[in-house]
UniProtKB/TrEMBL annotation:
<dbReference type="InterPro" id="IPR027855">
    <property type="entry name" value="DUF4479"/>
</dbReference>
<dbReference type="Pfam" id="PF01588">
    <property type="entry name" value="tRNA_bind"/>
</dbReference>
<dbReference type="GO" id="GO:0000049">
    <property type="term" value="F:tRNA binding"/>
</dbReference>
<protein>
    <submittedName>
        <fullName>tRNA-binding domain-containing protein</fullName>
        <ecNumber>6.1.1.20</ecNumber>
    </submittedName>
</protein>
<feature type="domain" description="TRNA-binding">
    <location>
        <begin position="90"/>
        <end position="201"/>
    </location>
</feature>
<dbReference type="InterPro" id="IPR033714">
    <property type="entry name" value="tRNA_bind_bactPheRS"/>
</dbReference>
<dbReference type="InterPro" id="IPR037154">
    <property type="entry name" value="YtpR-like_sf"/>
</dbReference>
<dbReference type="GO" id="GO:0004826">
    <property type="term" value="F:phenylalanine-tRNA ligase activity"/>
</dbReference>
<dbReference type="Pfam" id="PF14794">
    <property type="entry name" value="DUF4479"/>
</dbReference>
<dbReference type="InterPro" id="IPR012340">
    <property type="entry name" value="NA-bd_OB-fold"/>
</dbReference>
<keyword id="KW-0436">Ligase</keyword>
<keyword id="KW-0694">RNA-binding</keyword>
<dbReference type="InterPro" id="IPR002547">
    <property type="entry name" value="tRNA-bd_dom"/>
</dbReference>
<keyword id="KW-0820">tRNA-binding</keyword>
């Protein structure tokens, strides 16, 4: 789940993104200060809007926010009181982590894309289709995993590129909006000593 809040531009609304809408037609069901956004074709919930959220919890950040289990419990109580049976689930796992490309093959339907197997934890690999010119086996970089919100607001969900499954994105300094980021294509290149699975830290991982 992605929790996002921007009182200045959106109002006192916590937006909770559950799933990629995949261009499906959406409908909204509102009860009290809670609105459920769902797909018309499957009734699958893709998002929640919780209005007047500052009366429930105190949010000082803007953009993607991390909530405590206690705050999630308060929000679930609001959903229940509004008449909804579903519950929000907190996910405190980091969404931007150090990853290492351990395998790479050319995309069969592209002259510039590569299909990369990227280690993002000691016991986890994900497949990412990437077009950056500097990707190679052994490269360590920053990976945005599903559930991440990029600095410009775009969301990371599993999907397909040219028909091939891709689960995440390897990030460039420019995409991460790092200071003095070079304005050219290419994922961030980390030292080989960086530990796979470590949460992204701009101060530690960028000396631009």
């Amino acid at each position: 789940m992605i929790f996002t809040y921007n009182k200045e531009y959106v109002g006192d609304v916590l937006m909770v993104i559950i799933a990629d809408r995949q261009d499906a037609k959406l409908a909204v069901e509102r009860m009290g200060n809670v609105a459920r956004v769902y797909r018309l074709d499957s009734a699958e919930t893709v998002a929640w809007n919780i209005f007047q959220v500052s009366s429930l919890i105190d949010i000082t950040e803007r953009g993607q926010v991390l909530l405590t289990d206690k705050e999630i419990a308060i929000l679930n109580q609001e959903l229940s009181q509004a008449g909804f049976e579903q519950k929000l689930v907190n996910d405190l796992e980091p969404k931007f982590v150090v990853g290492e490309i351990v395998e790479m093959v050319a995309h069969p339907d592209s002259d510039h894309l590569n299909i990369c197997q990227v280690k993002v934890a000691a016991d986890k690999k994900v497949q990412i289709v990437a077009g950056a010119p500097n990707v190679k086996v052994g490269l360590k970089t920053i990976v945005a995993l599903p559930g991440a919100m990029m600095p410009k607001g775009n969301l990371i969900f599993p999907g397909k590129l040219r028909g091939v499954e891709s689960c995440g994105m390897m990030c460039s300094p420019r995409e991460l909006q790092l200071p003095n980021a070079p304005q050219k294509r290419g994922v961030i290149e980390l030292a080989s000593s960086e530990a796979v699975g470590t949460a992204f830290d701009p101060i530690k991982h960028w000396q631009g």
